[in-house]
Amino acid sequence: MVQVLNQIKDPEDMKQLSEPELEQLCQEIREVLIQTTAANGGHLAPNLGIVELTLALHLVFRSPDDKIVWDVGHQSYVHKLLTGRYEDFHTLRTYQGMAGFPKRSESPHDIFNTGHSSTSISAALGLAFARDLKREDNAIVAVIGDGALTGGIALEALNHAGNENTDLIVVLNDNKKSIADNVGALSTYLTRMRTDPRYFRNKEEMEDVVKKIPSIGPQVFKILEKVKEGLKHLMVPGVLFEELGYSYLGPIDGHNLTELRAVLDNARQLKGPVLVHVLTKKGCGYEPAEQNPGLFHGVGPFDIKTGKVHKSEGPKTYTQVFSDTMMQLARQDERVLAITAAMPDGTGLAPFAQAFPARFYDVGIAEQHAVCMASALALEGLKPVVAVYSTFLQRAYDQVFHEVCLQKAPVILALDRAGIVGEDGETHHGVYDLSYLRHLPELILMAPKDENELQHMLYTAYKQEGPVAIRYPRGKGQGVPLDQVLQEIPIGQSEVLREGDDLLLLAIGSMVNPAMEAAKQLASQGIEATVVNARYVKPLDKDLIVEKAQALGKVLTVEENALEGGFGSAVIELLQEEAVDCQVRRIGIPDEFIQHGASPILLKDYGLTADNIASVAADFVGIKKALTKRGNLKLAPFMGNVKVAFRGEK
Ligand SMILES: Cc1ncc(C[n+]2csc(CCOP(=O)(O)OP(=O)(O)O)c2C)c(N)n1
Ligand SMILES: CC(=O)[C@@H](O)[C@H](O)COP(=O)(O)O
Ligand SMILES: [Mg+2]
């Protein structure tokens, strides 16, 4: 029963609470987190682990004047609950409800939008410089996880800030976990600090160390006396963060509110960059999440009592089929390697990692490095597959261009979560890859209509001697039978699924089956569509598209990608180059960001359904009939006839 949390309309309200009330608040927050994510899904374990730390931050600092930046932002639920959003929290991650990440539009306490990892220190440094330039006097705090700290941009900012004289606090939330176990030398270093008793010098030892510093020692000691409580947390000089220019406080027990408050209070008083190292337990307070923080990192609806995630029946996911095919290829060819940027489970590479540990690389949250490293491996004759979410490959665009395509390196980019991903929302939808990849020379770019085609495409990619990207959606496949023998799909060859005289429905990837459905609906209205599964965005099946467009005069392209520069754009460019006299309409994502919510709702919103394809197609063909009646069959020059339609627009 919530008694304290509902009284907190602003973090300042917490400052009146007694210690037992604060304890009660922590408990209530954990209950609300569990109940809400059990119903809606969400990032439970990261939030359970950061309850006391978030309370301490809001008790010590004065948000929003003091600015707290949450890295990734998946752990900002507690912050949301403490900043006046308890009443609406039940709408978390639902359509038109509260976002699962910080949003400036949602609250003045959300200082910087996040979702993609490792930006908090850069953002905080920018905020700190702005404060200095404006001669303001507020604290700036970046809260970053040990996983996010493996990201290149975090290290770039850490490097920069350490050499600057500006006041900035970096709170490192170290729970030893990224989504899976954290990786890398920094992570090993942090683990050593957690466990090696030499790092836990007591206060007396510290006093001795400081006093012994020639000439300045006693002075420094006097200053440190002022921050007495924090003194016992001061690390010996020489540790990494001190060397980088930070005053290091830690490691601190991240579940001890009193200690956290004392140390953060000290951090607030120190000048220059400060790093507060906080040790937390991911999933703290809910046994199933403590036992399996990976599963409860980002979890679907589950049963609170048993901790069992609600089963969703149905066919294998695209990810599972990708995973199985990788295993098959790896068994046949020892040159096949798998690379992930901190997502072994999400990308389906965990079984590969188990079976072929020597051929598996988890590079941390380092997409740029993953792609560049893959290029070098490929140039050495190996067969690297970088499995990455479409949205996160955006981080490595330049590596795809510079390291992979320019050198014609036969790297396979397996882009999972392409298209609308649902509840994670605008930062995570993978709706730009066709646009940001298709203009790169040398790259072959494909998208399967179903999971069976995915396995053949992966095999086809494996057979190539240049770079290939395959994009496929989040979630279940179509439930089609999977061929036992992998086959190459000729490069640039599309597939005619249905012949009709009234228009060409030209679809790519996840939109092929809705297009076929639409064709069936149209047939019942007397409209016969030719349906083509394009398969390749690059190279396009030029001859077939030109031939059909010329013959039918009307082309409706359908894609789960931004219209700007996407598949439909490629088709328009082709038809214009070939001076084909026809009309084109496109269905896809318009020039706006897509919010969060269940995927079927969002797909419907954007007209990415069989019903809407049928309705746009019927309208398209209807125009032709009207023109014919007026005896005006002559179509204007091609470009003038391009009509973009989405959301059933007439
Ligand atoms: C650029 C980018 N790559 C990958 C991800 C996926 N991702 C989200 S959270 C996360 C792990 C973060 O670990 P950490 O920062 O330690 O936070 P924790 O969940 O442990 O609190 C990953 C890999 C992402 N959000 N952004
Ligand atoms: C915060 C983050 O970026 C990931 O945890 C992401 O939410 C995972 O998404 P999937 O659930 O699609 O694996
Ligand atoms: Mg972590």
UniProtKB/TrEMBL annotation:
Pathway: Metabolic intermediate biosynthesis; 1-deoxy-D-xylulose 5-phosphate biosynthesis; 1-deoxy-D-xylulose 5-phosphate from D-glyceraldehyde 3-phosphate and pyruvate: step 1/1
Entry binding sites for Mg(2+): 146, 175
GO cellular component annotations of the record: cytosol
Comment on bound cofactor: Binds 1 Mg(2+) ion per subunit.
InterPro entries: Dxylulose-5-P_synthase (IPR005477), THDP-binding (IPR029061), Transketo_C/PFOR_II (IPR009014), Transketolase-like_Pyr-bd (IPR005475), Transketolase_BS (IPR020826), Transketolase_C (IPR033248), Transketolase_CS (IPR049557)
Binding site for thiamine diphosphate: 74, 115-117, 147-148, 175, 286, 367
A Pfam family recorded for this sequence: DXP_synthase_N
GO molecular function: 1-deoxy-D-xylulose-5-phosphate synthase activity; magnesium ion binding; thiamine pyrophosphate binding
Residue ranges annotated for the Transketolase-like pyrimidine-binding domain, each copy included: 316-480
Keywords: Isoprene biosynthesis, Magnesium, Metal-binding, Thiamine biosynthesis, Thiamine pyrophosphate, Transferase
Top-level EC class: transferase
Family per record: Belongs to the transketolase family. DXPS subfamily.
Protein name according to UniProt: 1-deoxy-D-xylulose-5-phosphate synthase
Organism: Heliorestis convoluta
Gene that produces this protein: dxs
